[in-house]
Amino acid sequence: MNPPQSFRDFGKLVASKRLPRANGVIVGLAASGFAYLAISVGEVNGTVIGVILFSLLLLLICAWSWTYRATLYENGAVVQSIFGAKSLGFRNLRTFGYSRLSMRGQPQDTLTLVPRTGKSLRIVVQPDVRSNGDVDISALVEVLSARFSEQIEKELTRTSRVAWVEGRSAAMPAQPAVALSRDAFLVASGKDELKIPFTDVDGSIQNGFYHGRKSGTRKVLFTIACSAVGFYPGLALQQRLQASRPVPEAKLA
Q: Are 78 and 87 a contacting pair, CB within 8 Å?
């Protein structure tokens, strides 16, 4: 299935993914099996009708699986299937989320695109490492992070604080809501909020999580999943804010 002409305005192809053909074959065989059972009964009753309807549902899933394709371009993304196509240009985004997993040695990237209005679009692609597809996606994430960090910095200038990530109490580990000011992390702690200056935190990313540790120690003050929506733009802004702070002069003895 080729992208419609209008999607080509999205620029260079970065990565794409189809679902494994085996998925459609398995679902199709299951649909055929249930349909055969229903027909072989030889009479029509509620159970048979239910089985036939279930078979039709499986056939629809089979058709969706065979025609599904997610495509990522440098300026937008497209999801297509037998049920239609949905596209979203990056110029219409409010923010985004990004994560990478390794599936049998093959990287699998997930982008959650959050538009200014409407529903989010989730894109799962497998970049071709041999053709530097993973490099292209990393570069795209950097570009989007820089773009949206500039947007939230404008909001920070107006409001003196800006939300970074939402709290997720059910996550493992639990993730507090974190906001940013010009010089500090604002971390939700129960009904209170902790203001932790950037200079008091050593931040590092390990195994898909950002750990904010108390400077010079191993004590973790807060943890954020890198896959959280808005994480990368917020991180880019925080690093830029911290770098712009004047370095205190060393006192002479």
A: yes
**Cα–Cα distance, 229 to 115 (Å, whole number):** 12
- What does the alpha-carbon distance between residue 49 and residue 20 come to, in Å, rounded to a whole number? 30
Residues in the chain: 253
One pLDDT digit (tens) per residue for the chain, 253 residues = 444 445 567 888 877 777 666 666 677 777 777 776 777 766 767 777 787 788 888 888 888 778 888 888 888 888 888 888 888 888 888 899 998 877 666 677 888 899 988 888 888 776 554 444 455 677 888 888 988 999 999 999 999 999 999 887 666 667 889 999 999 999 998 778 899 999 999 999 988 899 999 998 989 999 999 989 999 999 999 999 998 876 555 444 4
pTM of the entire structure? Answer: 0.72
SS3 of the chain: the string is CCCCHHHHHHCCEEEEEECCHHHHHHHHHHHHHHHHHHHHHCCCCHHHHHHHHHHHHHHHHHHHHHHCEEEEECCEEEEEECCEEEEEEHHHEEEEEEEEEEECCEEEEEEEEEECCCCCEEEEECCCHHHCHHHHHHHHHHHHHHHHHHHHHHHHHHHCCEEEECCECCCCCCECCEEECCCEEEEEECCEEEEEEHHHEEEEEECCEEEEEECCCCCEEEEEECCCCCHHHHHHHHHHHHHHCCCCCCCCC
Q: Edge-to-edge strand order for the sheet containing 162-165?
A: 162-165, 178-180, 184-189, 192-197
Amino acid letter for position 97? G
> Cβ–Cβ contacts within 10 Å for residue 46, how many?
7
For residue 187, what are the β-bridge partners? 178, 194
